[in-house]
Every structure is written in structure tokens, then in C-alpha cells.
Write a sequence for this structure.
């Protein structure tokens, strides 16, 4: 549903959920105008560094990530009861957008983002597999291990989580 004052969809956060604590989230962030900016290895490296710093600072695990050409998938989990997912994403988007606009003189992200809160009984490994196999489904690579812009910030061997 669109907000009449904006050309962008209304933000869709759950009204009665705090987004704080040790919850797991499947998050998708889209590039501005769905530009294929995440094909540049240098850019992805810089954004990955900022992701790692922000996750550490905001008390989040990043179990899986995948920079597709025009969007980023994340499987994250709060480490502490005060881990704030909205704050984590806000900080990550703000830091990356600031750096990107200084270097490229344009905007990086589409407003808002999509998130799904994983149920306690839902296997995070299935979500991680979905994220990591996205380049295979899109025909970019034949095996997810060949894609250079995905992985985990928590484990060296990604097969440990999928």
C-alpha cells in the first residue's frame, strides 16, 4: 500500500513488536532504483567491512549475507536482549550511504527494507541456504561456493550453517 504523500511504499514494521532481543531476521535491502552496483568487488568489500563493524557494534551475528547485483540479503541474529534490529539496519544503511555518496555522488539504498522475523522453531539453515543459493537461482554461478560476494561473518566454513 502506498502512502499518498510519497512515491515509496509505506514502511511495514510490526506495530507491537520491539525488534529488540535475541531474534533472528531475514532482511533484504535494495539498491536505489535497483541499480546493479554490487557487482563491483571493491564496493562489496567496503560494504562488507562496514557490515562487520556495525554488527559488532550493534551486537548482531551475521550468519549469512549475499550481495546480489541490486540487493543484499542478510540472516542476522541479536546477541543480547538489547540488540536492536532497527538500529542495526539504520546504522548500517546510514554509514554505507554516507560513504557511497561521498565516493559516487549518488544515493545507495532504496528507502526502507524488507524483514521477516524467524520463528523460534524455524530452521535458520534453510534461510541461510536460500540466501547463499540466490546467485545459483539467478543463473550467475552454478555453485553457491563460487560466488565471491556472499558468506558468513560468523563461520569460515559456510557449510557449517547450511
Amino acid at each position: 500500500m502506498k502512502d499518498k504523500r510519497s512515491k515509496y511504499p509505506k514502511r511495514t514494521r510490526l506495530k507491537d513488536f520491539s525488534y529488540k532481543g535475541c531474534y533472528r531476521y531475514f532482511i533484504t535491502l535494495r539498491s536505489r532504483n535497483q541499480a546493479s552496483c554490487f557487482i563491483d568487488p571493491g564496493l562489496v568489500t567496503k560494504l562488507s567491512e562496514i557490515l562487520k563493524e556495525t554488527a559488532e557494534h550493534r551486537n548482531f551475528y551475521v550468519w549469512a549475507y549475499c550481495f546480489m547485483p541490486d540487493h543484499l540479503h542478510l540472516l542476522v541474529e541479536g546477541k543480547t536482549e538489547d540488540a536492536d534490529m532497527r538500529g542495526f539496519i539504520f546504522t548500517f544503511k546510514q554509514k554505507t550511504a554516507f560513504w557511497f555518496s561521498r565516493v559516487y555522488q549518488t544515493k545507495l539504498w532504496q528507502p526502507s527494507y524488507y524483514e521477516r522475523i524467524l520463528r523460534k522453531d524455524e530452521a535458520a539453515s534453510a534461510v541461510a541456504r536460500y540466501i547463499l543459493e540466490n546467485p545459483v537461482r539467478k543463473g550467475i554461478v552454478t555453485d553457491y561456493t563460487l560466488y565471491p560476494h556472499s558468506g558468513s561473518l560468523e563461520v569460515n566454513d559456510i557449510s557449517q550453517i547450511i
Q: What stands out?
A: The longest helix spans residues 85-104.
